[in-house]
Amino acid sequence: MPLRRSQKIVLAAFVLGSGLLGLSVFRGSSGSACRLVPYNQSATTTAPVPAQLPEWSLKGIDGQTHDLQALAGDLTIIAFWATWCPNCHRELATLRELHEELSPAGLSIIGISLDGAKREDQVVRYAAEAELPFPVVYTDRSDHAEMSAIRAVPTLLIYDAEGQLVGHFEGQTDKADLLELAQSHLAPGSVAVLSRR
Predict the structure, then answer these.
(1) Structural domain contains residue 47
(2) Residues 87 and 171 sit within 8 Å (Cβ to Cβ)
(3) Residues 26, 36 contacting (CB under 8 angstroms)
(4) Is 159 a domain residue?
(5) How far apart (Å, rounded) are the C-alpha atoms in residues 149 and 38?
(6) How many domains does the chain have?
(7) Which of 26, 178, 3, 158 is nearest to 80 (CA)?
(8) d(CA 103, CA 142)
(9) Which residues constitute the domain of residue 30?
(10) Is 143 helix (H, G, I), strand (E, B) or coil?
């Protein structure tokens, strides 16, 4: 059924208003991403992406506190996502595959939901439905100042075994790009044949 003129005006106003609020969709460095509204509206700058594996301790959906420093020594992917983000759902499926293929070779993944504690039930439900095999924690980005550097979801921060930042992707990332990065940072010979589905 075609839209009437009044419906078109309302739709246009919604799209324009969403853009003004910082909720618009934009192209990230590797794919589509959803822009996040800054958690601290008074902040005029954001912190840089941490160049070293962050010293963050966050509450997991399993009730445990997860310390990111415990992942040091592995190639570590920190995946920022939200339950309301369709591109995040696709990226988490890719990360689930990578985890299954590469965790024996030294890959660790942790998912950080930016839904916040108020939506913990939705995060728990989604993680169970998606059968995420890696730890999932949640935050509203106010837990650590460095999280203000996360401007969109999905976002991946990738750290090598020495804890140095080797990858930063905003937007849905191709599995082939992640496999290439993993191959260059995991021990030679530790990675068998990698599928590029």
Answers:
(1) yes
(2) yes
(3) no
(4) yes
(5) 9
(6) 1
(7) 158
(8) 30
(9) 5-185
(10) coil
Assess if residue 28 is contained within a domain.
Answer: yes
The tokens of 136 are what?
């999932």
Structure tokens at 25: 């969709």
Q: Which residue has the tokens 């804890």?
A: 163
Residues 108-161 pLDDT 10s: 999 999 987 788 899 999 999 999 999 999 886 666 666 777 888 999 999 999
Give the pLDDT confidence of 170-188 residue by residue, as tens digits.
999 999 999 999 988 887 6
Q: Is residue 90 part of a domain?
A: yes
Give every CB contact of residue 122 below 8 A, 6+ residues apart in sequence: 83, 115
Tokens of 89: 């759902």
Helix, strand, coil % over all residues of the chain, rounded to 5: 35, 25, 40
pTM of the model: 0.75
Pairing of strands 107-113, 165-170: unpaired
Task: List the structure tokens of 60.
Answer: 């997991």
Q: What is the CATH number of the domain that holds 43?
A: 3.40.30.10
